[in-house]
């Protein structure tokens, strides 16, 4: 006889029949009936009417029947609170039973009955069970405290159960310890500030001992609890790590992942030059790889976590690319995750293999997967420059397949490749244009339009192509409309004669017939620009684009840190903080990685992560004028009346005010506007060192030259003062530079037009360019100059401040900054002290910005301001800096990171010069 | 923690529903059915979030097991628990099927009550559970028995009870390896690894302390330094050591001891257990090499030739060899010629399946096929899935050798010599694919 028959009772009057059976005298019949009731309950039938009859069966010595009745009670007690009281006596009695299994069962079930009146009766039995001689009862009672806390937190505190629970952490039985830890961790989560767990070196030691002895599940509870602890110093951190690492060999993947979490967190505190740090990094890789041979669901969890780990510490898995290759039979969710990690691990060393794989994937069946594979090829091209060419040819091969979604995806990524490597792969445009008709997805259409607009001068029929899109303008998605508008304006600026009509058409479509405010705004701005000052328009629309970063979908650093603290949990699977998907107070507490406690030498990249991601938003307004300020300035300006309706009276009226002819420039209003744009970025002028004598008269037959360098409006100027201290007139001045480190060269002749008489002085400024021949000098900023006049040729050398070479677009994207900072090896970091500087961090930041040293983020740690800055040199070298300013301490610490570390010394000198003047 | 656990049949009808937490309502049962089981699309993730409730599911044949929670639980633990749950059910009543679940639903509720308390997994070792959760109802136990049960369930050696006695002490070790390969059409190994398991079946009396040794490179190298005599002994026995990338152990193995000394010591559970899993990637013996040749003859014909070569000692025999050659979807007919074994075109599986019962080492065999195709106007190219292979060989492709398994039982009077030990090596194909 089997139990399945209980599922098939659907007769009428069933409840009535069951009632009769439940009250039967025969034990067997009773048991049968209870089983039927449970079966009905499972399929969702309401059998609550039988409550009193079922409870009557409770007093039995048959354990199986007892368990079934308890199961029923747990389900229906809440709906029949008064009846549930009937059961209390039996529970209390069972808690005294000589059989520990029954005592535990009673206390376990009682905790699940969520009726207030019952909880009062629960306290006494629970107190006894917490001190039971049998460990099985104690471990059950420990969990019961958590249950009770969930129903009535106050009661648990009043009854002092929390203290008893804390005592259980020192229990002799490891399973009791594990359950007590689990219960306390859960209770602590709803009291974020209470020091319930009271983790200190002693209690941690106890946990670590229990870790070796308890079940796999218990090990998980303990490891998850350990992860909340913050060791006092690096030594403690190391000793905990040493005792946790053996868990990496556990067969249970959850134990392994929780151990990885503890290690990843505590590693933050270890000094990087420690041998143990390297050992630990090496130990982490194999277990992570092993997780990939688990069942697919666990592989998925593991891969989502590996994705985080790879972002945080790429070095761990950098040699393990092959294990992430997709297998034909992997479930789709595993495939997609593997692909993500492959891209993150792609580097010059393994790119050939990766590309070969991606090409295979692009021919698979699953559409999402194929798209992602194509996209991945594009990302490889952007990430690894050496591979770009191969990637492009692979993409072209794929376009030839004519599979619709492959083509579209390929076009989207080719657009990004064009952005990254301008003027390199335009030969493929023709192929792309062939596929114009097959594009039906907005993203692909927008990408294609962008390409046509960007390279309008090379595509003969660009106007026809764009016009063809214009026909269905209003049916396109906003993305496509915006792109089309910009592309046609670009086209007009490049080929103004043939496309005037087209541009008029698109402008009116965008401004008059569209309801989309973004589109209208952009339309008006172009219209105004074109009508007032086509030159400015050209500068704006055809401006050089900022570089696109390699890693586009990096998780924001603060979030990444938090997620690292949640390795193994749902948060790490969703890549969202727990607050995003957990209701109520539980788990909303934000976790953070511990900071290094060693002396303040050299900051680690994770700290920068904090800075850029975390506190920067608050700090930003004080450093960089926000958009609001800019707009304020704009409106305060005394602009010509034409502009006012545009800004004030709303957009509807604007076209009427506009001059009909597009080419008629109106006043200087807009010009001012754009000059202002440049000006706002520079609240203070750039630092100009005082003039010094470069060539004394003694050495140059009476010609004395003193001078300095300045950077004005983006142009480097050499400002010279020539004094004639000789008796005769000097004429025919000319100047020449020797080859130098940054290719400085005069951009024009030395403008000394009138002869220089005796005792006369003339000031000239000579614009310099940076496209001259290059030769490395020592010191780096040394410049050898030859000046000629009618008397002789004289040579001198001078040193220019390297800040002259800091260009105006040296403000790095925050994400790029982070990636770059991590990317540059630590060996390239150099550190300097600036003594006796009495500026606060804000003033310093403003002052530095004047010299094109841009503050990207700021954060404050224990009264110490950390400023993160970027500088771009005229030859494209980026210098990243971290400036530590402590209130009241006149000594600044500055760390510089650069791919060409030679420049660091010069850059430091600039800092010193700028800050002290 | 886990808020509830549901088991559904393939239609989405609930077979078992157990709620552990108050935040999970009855509607959660329906939410999963509607959004996952009845969803039109293929399941895109084993974790689904529906209205702030997270569902973890695994499928066994056509049965769905789903764990539900509203909190930030340890996701890896939930899946490990679901697998464990399947193991426990299988150990109790065999295959997980709708019928078996319905037949044993009372038992399942009882198990769920025991192994999951307020959503926290508790001891779930079948050996321990079987001592007090039985299908026949609990017999009355003596006081000693009761306390023995509880101490086993909570104890340090939760996987073994005391007082086991056998007339003959015997143990069986199986080294089971699956060798995985992905090869390019040109014969270049794209990736290869062996994932192996050491399965131990022991019938030993008392609480035997065991020590397991194998030709792990790290151990051998360490011993090599120890003294010249041992080194000589190592050479004499001809053991080659292997580099193990990573290994994991059954919970009975003392991990801290392994970490410190790399020695594997444990008290085994009674009966069968998986002592260890390991993974190697270096110096793998690939038992077979597949050489594919696919030629498209016009638009309606394909010619396929596949050669397989066995690469191991001629005295050994491989068994159950099966080569699966995928064919395009628009295949209309296939002619196959093979020198050895039997080959058949299976239209329903879109593949030619070539089976060979036995094959000795250092041999080769080949198959050639002509595939007729129906003309299609499908733009999509045929994806050319890889040729896959199955086989079984009587050696360990990783090169792993068991060096010893010593048994000490200080309390009982039997010694290591009295234990009868059997060791067996089986190498099977995992995912063994060659692209074509």
From TrEMBL, chain A:
<feature type="domain" description="Beta-adaptin appendage C-terminal subdomain">
    <location>
        <begin position="806"/>
        <end position="916"/>
    </location>
</feature>
<keyword id="KW-0653">Protein transport</keyword>
<comment type="similarity">
    <text>Belongs to the adaptor complexes large subunit family.</text>
</comment>
<feature type="domain" description="Clathrin adaptor alpha/beta/gamma-adaptin appendage Ig-like subdomain">
    <location>
        <begin position="687"/>
        <end position="797"/>
    </location>
</feature>
<dbReference type="Pfam" id="PF02883">
    <property type="entry name" value="Alpha_adaptinC2"/>
</dbReference>
<dbReference type="InterPro" id="IPR016342">
    <property type="entry name" value="AP_complex_bsu_1_2_4"/>
</dbReference>
<dbReference type="InterPro" id="IPR008152">
    <property type="entry name" value="Clathrin_a/b/g-adaptin_app_Ig"/>
</dbReference>
<dbReference type="GO" id="GO:0012505">
    <property type="term" value="C:endomembrane system"/>
</dbReference>
<protein>
    <recommendedName>
        <fullName>AP complex subunit beta</fullName>
    </recommendedName>
</protein>
<dbReference type="InterPro" id="IPR002553">
    <property type="entry name" value="Clathrin/coatomer_adapt-like_N"/>
</dbReference>
<dbReference type="InterPro" id="IPR016024">
    <property type="entry name" value="ARM-type_fold"/>
</dbReference>
<dbReference type="Pfam" id="PF09066">
    <property type="entry name" value="B2-adapt-app_C"/>
</dbReference>
<dbReference type="InterPro" id="IPR011989">
    <property type="entry name" value="ARM-like"/>
</dbReference>
<dbReference type="InterPro" id="IPR009028">
    <property type="entry name" value="Coatomer/calthrin_app_sub_C"/>
</dbReference>
<keyword id="KW-0813">Transport</keyword>
<dbReference type="InterPro" id="IPR026739">
    <property type="entry name" value="AP_beta"/>
</dbReference>
<dbReference type="InterPro" id="IPR000225">
    <property type="entry name" value="Armadillo"/>
</dbReference>
<dbReference type="GO" id="GO:0006886">
    <property type="term" value="P:intracellular protein transport"/>
</dbReference>
<dbReference type="GO" id="GO:0030276">
    <property type="term" value="F:clathrin binding"/>
</dbReference>
<dbReference type="InterPro" id="IPR013041">
    <property type="entry name" value="Clathrin_app_Ig-like_sf"/>
</dbReference>
<dbReference type="InterPro" id="IPR012295">
    <property type="entry name" value="TBP_dom_sf"/>
</dbReference>
<keyword id="KW-0007">Acetylation</keyword>
Automatic annotation (TrEMBL), chain B:
<keyword id="KW-0446">Lipid-binding</keyword>
<keyword id="KW-0813">Transport</keyword>
<dbReference type="InterPro" id="IPR043512">
    <property type="entry name" value="Mu2_C"/>
</dbReference>
<keyword id="KW-1003">Cell membrane</keyword>
<feature type="binding site">
    <location>
        <position position="355"/>
    </location>
    <ligand>
        <name>a 1,2-diacyl-sn-glycero-3-phospho-(1D-myo-inositol-3,4,5-trisphosphate)</name>
    </ligand>
</feature>
<keyword id="KW-0653">Protein transport</keyword>
<dbReference type="GO" id="GO:0005905">
    <property type="term" value="C:clathrin-coated pit"/>
</dbReference>
<keyword id="KW-0254">Endocytosis</keyword>
<feature type="binding site">
    <location>
        <position position="344"/>
    </location>
    <ligand>
        <name>a 1,2-diacyl-sn-glycero-3-phospho-(1D-myo-inositol-3,4,5-trisphosphate)</name>
    </ligand>
</feature>
<protein>
    <submittedName>
        <fullName>Adaptor related protein complex 2 subunit mu 1</fullName>
    </submittedName>
</protein>
<dbReference type="GO" id="GO:0006886">
    <property type="term" value="P:intracellular protein transport"/>
</dbReference>
<keyword id="KW-0472">Membrane</keyword>
<dbReference type="InterPro" id="IPR043532">
    <property type="entry name" value="AP2_Mu_N"/>
</dbReference>
<dbReference type="InterPro" id="IPR011012">
    <property type="entry name" value="Longin-like_dom_sf"/>
</dbReference>
<dbReference type="InterPro" id="IPR036168">
    <property type="entry name" value="AP2_Mu_C_sf"/>
</dbReference>
<comment type="similarity">
    <text>Belongs to the adaptor complexes medium subunit family.</text>
</comment>
<dbReference type="GO" id="GO:0005886">
    <property type="term" value="C:plasma membrane"/>
</dbReference>
<dbReference type="InterPro" id="IPR050431">
    <property type="entry name" value="Adaptor_comp_med_subunit"/>
</dbReference>
<dbReference type="GO" id="GO:0006897">
    <property type="term" value="P:endocytosis"/>
</dbReference>
<feature type="binding site">
    <location>
        <position position="357"/>
    </location>
    <ligand>
        <name>a 1,2-diacyl-sn-glycero-3-phospho-(1D-myo-inositol-3,4,5-trisphosphate)</name>
    </ligand>
</feature>
<dbReference type="InterPro" id="IPR022775">
    <property type="entry name" value="AP_mu_sigma_su"/>
</dbReference>
<feature type="binding site">
    <location>
        <position position="342"/>
    </location>
    <ligand>
        <name>a 1,2-diacyl-sn-glycero-3-phospho-(1D-myo-inositol-3,4,5-trisphosphate)</name>
    </ligand>
</feature>
């Amino acid at each position: 006889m089997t139990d399945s028959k209980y599922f098939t009772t659907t007769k009428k009057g069933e409840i009535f029949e069951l009632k009769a059976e439940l009250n039967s005298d025969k034990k067997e019949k009773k048991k049968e009936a209870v089983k039927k009731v449970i079966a009905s309950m499972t399929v969702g039938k309401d059998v609550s009417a039988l409550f009193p009859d079922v409870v009557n069966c409770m007093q039995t010595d048959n354990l199986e029947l007892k368990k079934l009745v308890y199961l029923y009670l747990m389900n229906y007690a809440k709906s029949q609170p008064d009846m549930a009281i009937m059961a209390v006596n039996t529970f209390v009695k069972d808690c005294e039973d000589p059989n520990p299994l029954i005592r535990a069962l009673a206390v376990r079930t009682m905790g699940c009955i969520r009726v207030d009146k019952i909880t009062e009766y629960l306290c006494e039995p629970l107190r006894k069970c917490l001190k039971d001689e049998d460990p099985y009862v104690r471990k059950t009672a420990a969990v019961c405290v958590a249950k009770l806390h969930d129903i009535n937190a106050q009661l648990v505190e009043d009854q002092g159960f929390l203290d008893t629970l804390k005592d259980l952490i020192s229990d002799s039985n490891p399973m009791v310890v594990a359950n007590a830890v689990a219960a306390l961790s859960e209770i602590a989560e709803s009291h974020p500030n209470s020091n319930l767990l009271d983790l200190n070196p002693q209690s941690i030691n106890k946990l670590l001992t229990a870790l070796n002895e308890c079940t796999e599940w218990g090990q998980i509870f303990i490891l998850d609890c350990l992860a909340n602890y913050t060791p006092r110093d690096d030594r403690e951190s190391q000793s905990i790590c040493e005792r946790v690492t053996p868990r990496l060999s556990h067969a249970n993947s959850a134990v392994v992942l929780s151990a990885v979490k503890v290690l990843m967190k505590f590693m933050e505190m270890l000094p990087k030059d420690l041998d143990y740090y390297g050992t630990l990094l090496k130990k982490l890789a194999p277990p992570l790889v092993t997780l990939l041979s688990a069942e697919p669901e666990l592989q998925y969890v593991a891969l989502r976590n590996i994705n985080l780990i790879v972002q945080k510490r790429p070095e761990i898995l950098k040699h393990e690319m092959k294990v992430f290759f997709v297998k034909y039979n992997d479930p789709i969710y595993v495939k997609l995750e593997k692909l993500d990690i492959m891209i993150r691990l792609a580097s010059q060393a393994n790119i050939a293999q990766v590309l070969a794989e991606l090409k295979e994937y692009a021919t698979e069946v699953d559409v999402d997967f194929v798209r992602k594979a194509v996209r991945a090829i594009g990302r490889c091209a952007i990430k690894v420059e050496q591979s770009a060419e191969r990637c492009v040819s692979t993409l072209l091969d794929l376009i030839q397949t004519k599979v619709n979604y492959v083509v579209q995806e390929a076009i989207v990524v080719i657009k990004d490749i064009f952005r990254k490597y301008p003027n390199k792969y335009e030969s493929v445009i023709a192929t792309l244009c062939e596929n114009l008709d097959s594009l039906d997805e907005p993203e692909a259409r927008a990408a294609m339009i962008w390409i046509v607009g960007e390279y309008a001068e090379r595509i003969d029929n660009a106007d026809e192509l764009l016009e063809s899109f214009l026909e269905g303008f209003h049916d396109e998605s906003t993305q496509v409309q915006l792109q089309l508008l910009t592309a046609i304006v670009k086209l007009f600026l490049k080929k103004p004669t043939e496309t005037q009509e087209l541009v008029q058409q698109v402008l009116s479509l965008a401004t008059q017939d569209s309801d989309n405010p973004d589109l209208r705004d952009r339309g008006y701005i172009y219209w105004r620009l074109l009508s007032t000052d086509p030159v400015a328009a050209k500068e704006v629309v055809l401006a050089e684009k900022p570089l696109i970063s390699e890693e586009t979908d990096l998780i924001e650093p603060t979030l990444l840190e938090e997620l690292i603290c949640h390795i193994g949990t749902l948060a790490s699977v969703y890549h969202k903080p727990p607050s995003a998907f957990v209701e109520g107070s539980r788990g909303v507490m934000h976790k953070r990685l511990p900071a290094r406690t060693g002396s303040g030498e050299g900051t680690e990249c994770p700290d920068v992560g904090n800075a850029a991601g975390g506190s920067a938003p608050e700090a930003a307004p004080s450093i960089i004028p926000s958009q609001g300020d800019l707009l304020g300035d704009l409106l305060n300006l005394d602009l010509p009346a034409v502009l006012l309706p545009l800004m004030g009276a709303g957009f509807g009226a604007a076209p009427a005010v506009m001059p009909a002819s597009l080419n008629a420039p109106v006043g200087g209003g807009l010009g001012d506007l754009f000059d202002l744009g440049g000006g706002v970025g520079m609240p203070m002028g750039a630092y100009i060192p005082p003039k010094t004598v470069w060539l004394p008269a003694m050495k140059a037959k009476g010609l004395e030259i003193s001078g300095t360098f300045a950077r004005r409006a983006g142009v480097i100027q050499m400002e010279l003062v020539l004094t004639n201290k000789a008796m005769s007139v000097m004429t025919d001045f000319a100047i020449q530079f020797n080859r130098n480190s940054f290719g400085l060269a005069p951009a024009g002749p030395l403008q000394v037009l009138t002869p220089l008489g005796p005792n006369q002085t003339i000031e000239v400024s000579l614009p310099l360019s940076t496209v001259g021949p290059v030769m490395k000098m020592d010191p780096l900023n040394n410049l050898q100059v030859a000046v000629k006049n009618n008397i002789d040729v004289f040579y001198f050398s001078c040193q220019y401040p390297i800040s002259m070479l800091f260009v105006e677009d040296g403000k790095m994207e925050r994400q790029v900054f982070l990636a770059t900072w991590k990317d540059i090896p630590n060996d390239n970091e150099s550190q300097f002290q600036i003594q006796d500087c009495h500026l606060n961090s804000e003033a310093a930041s403003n002052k530095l910005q004047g010299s094109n040293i841009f503050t990207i983020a700021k954060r404050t740690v224990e009264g110490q301001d950390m400023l993160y800055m970027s500088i771009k040199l005229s030859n494209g070298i980026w210098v990243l800096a971290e400036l530590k300013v402590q209130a009241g301490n006149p000594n600044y610490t500055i760390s510089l990171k650069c791919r060409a570390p030679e420049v660091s010394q010069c850059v430091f000198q600039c800092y010193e010069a700028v800050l002290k003047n | 923690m886990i808020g509830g656990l549901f088991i559904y049949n393939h239609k989405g009808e609930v077979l078992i529903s157990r709620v552990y937490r108050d935040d999970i309502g009855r509607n959660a049962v329906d939410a999963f059915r509607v959004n996952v089981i009845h969803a039109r699309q293929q399941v895109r993730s084993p974790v689904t979030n529906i209205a702030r409730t997270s569902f973890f599911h695994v499928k066994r044949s056509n049965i769905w097991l789903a764990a539900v929670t509203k909190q930030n639980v340890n996701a890896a633990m939930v899946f490990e628990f679901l697998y464990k749950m399947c193991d426990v059910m299988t150990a109790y009543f065999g295959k997980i099927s709708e019928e078996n679940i319905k037949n044993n639903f009372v038992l399942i509720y009882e198990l769920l009550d025991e192994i999951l308390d307020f959503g926290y997994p508790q001891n779930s070792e079948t050996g321990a559970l079987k001592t007090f959760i039985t299908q026949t109802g609990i017999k009355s136990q003596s006081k000693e028995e009761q306390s023995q049960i509880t101490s086993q369930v909570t104890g340090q050696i939760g996987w073994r009870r005391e007082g086991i006695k056998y007339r003959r002490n015997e143990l069986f070790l199986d080294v089971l390896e699956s060798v995985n390969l992905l090869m390019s059409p040109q014969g270049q190994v794209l990736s290869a690894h062996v994932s192996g398991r050491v399965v131990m079946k022991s019938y030993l009396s008392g609480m035997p302390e065991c020590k397991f040794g194998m030709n792990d490179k790290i151990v051998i190298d360490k011993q090599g330094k120890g003294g010249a005599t041992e080194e000589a002994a190592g050479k004499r026995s001809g053991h080659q050591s292997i580099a193990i990338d990573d290994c994991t152990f059954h919970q009975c193995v003392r991990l801290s001891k392994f970490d410190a000394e790399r020695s594997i010591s444990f008290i085994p559970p009674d009966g069968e257990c998986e002592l260890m899993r390991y993974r190697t990637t270096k110096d793998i013996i690939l038992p077979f090499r597949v050489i594919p040749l696919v030629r498209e003859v016009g638009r309606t014909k394909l010619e396929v030739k596949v050669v397989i070569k066995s690469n191991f000692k001629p005295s050994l025999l491989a068994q159950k060899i099966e080569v699966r050659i995928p064919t395009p979807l628009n295949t209309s007919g296939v002619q196959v010629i093979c020198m050895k074994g039997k080959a058949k075109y299976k239209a329903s599986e879109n593949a030619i399946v070539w089976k060979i019962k036995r094959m000795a080492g250092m041999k080769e065999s080949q198959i050639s096929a002509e595939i007729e195709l129906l003309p299609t106007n499908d733009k999509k190219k045929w994806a050319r899935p890889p040729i896959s292979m199955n086989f079984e060989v009587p050696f360990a492709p990783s090169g792993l050798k068991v060096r010893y398994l010593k048994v000490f039982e200080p309390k009982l009077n039997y010694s290591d010599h009295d234990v009868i030990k059997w060791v067996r090596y089986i190498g099977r194909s995992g995912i063994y694919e060659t692209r074509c």
